[in-house]
Design a protein that fits this description.
8 strands; 28% helix
């Protein structure tokens, strides 16, 4: 269930997520820097398909930059690494404020279910988790054959994508694009998650983190330049 290209639109089979936080007194400048300089700068790099930003206020790191990429090799490629190694003066200043309060994940798309929304949905619900190695095959079957197909039928749930990281902790990420942030708490949402297989698999999740994120900068980049 991989994403296919439509016309001249590039395929997004990779993902880079960057989670950041800064002191409250620096947030205004931080958002100006991200929105006016950094996000457009990254979105223009070869291999990047789309870039957008979210606010995830309930987690330890409040801001998320979400970069769809052509594949998982873009992060290690020369263009992105040059950007990291040669920051602009404004980027260098911002690094002093977020310091170690940053997490960057590089992931590969495993499954894409639902429909591509015409405009970015206002909510993104993210589940990071690990799973015991001995049941990875069953975990993948459950997610791809039962869980995601059921959840995208819930009103307010538009799309679900699942990723794996070659080297990260946690290793797996699932993202749900939502029109309604309470979709999973509706009767339909609760029923979709109520199966014996789901109960079995969720019992073995570990190192799990969940985040409800609100869109603050809609997508920019080649996917939107048409």
């Amino acid at each position: 269930m991989m994403t296919e290209s439509t016309g001249s639109n590039p395929i997004a089979n990779g993902l880079i997520t960057v989670w950041l936080d800064v002191p409250p007194e620096r947030e205004e400048e931080f958002n100006d820097w991200y929105n006016l300089e950094h996000l457009p700068q990254v979105a223009r790099l070869p291999g990047f398909v789309s870039a957008r930003r979210y606010y995830c206020g309930e987690g330890p790191l409040k801001y998320l930059a979400w970069y769809d990429t052509v594949d998982e090799t873009v992060e290690s490629g020369p263009d992105f690494q040059r950007l990291v190694a040669e920051p602009t003066p404004w980027s260098r200043r911002m690094r002093r404020f977020y310091g170690e309060k940053r997490e960057r994940f590089n992931l590969r798309l495993m499954c894409d279910v639902g429909r591509v929304p015409g405009i970015d949905t206002p909510w993104l619900y993210i589940v990071h988790t690990d799973i015991p190695d001995e049941i990875v095959a069953e975990y993948n079957n459950w997610y791809d054959r039962e869980h995601l197909p059921r959840l995208v039928t819930v009103p307010g749930v538009v799309r679900a994508r699942r990723y794996a990281a070659p080297a990260a902790n946690p290793r797996y990420l699932t993202a749900y694009e939502l029109e309604d942030r309470n979709a999973f708490e509706s009767p339909e949402g609760l029923q979709a998650r109520k199966t014996p297989w789901t109960e079995k698999m969720r019992a073995v999740f570990h190192n799990t983190r969940r985040s409800m994120c609100r869109l603050i900068v809609p997508g920019i980049g080649p996917q939107h330049d048409r």
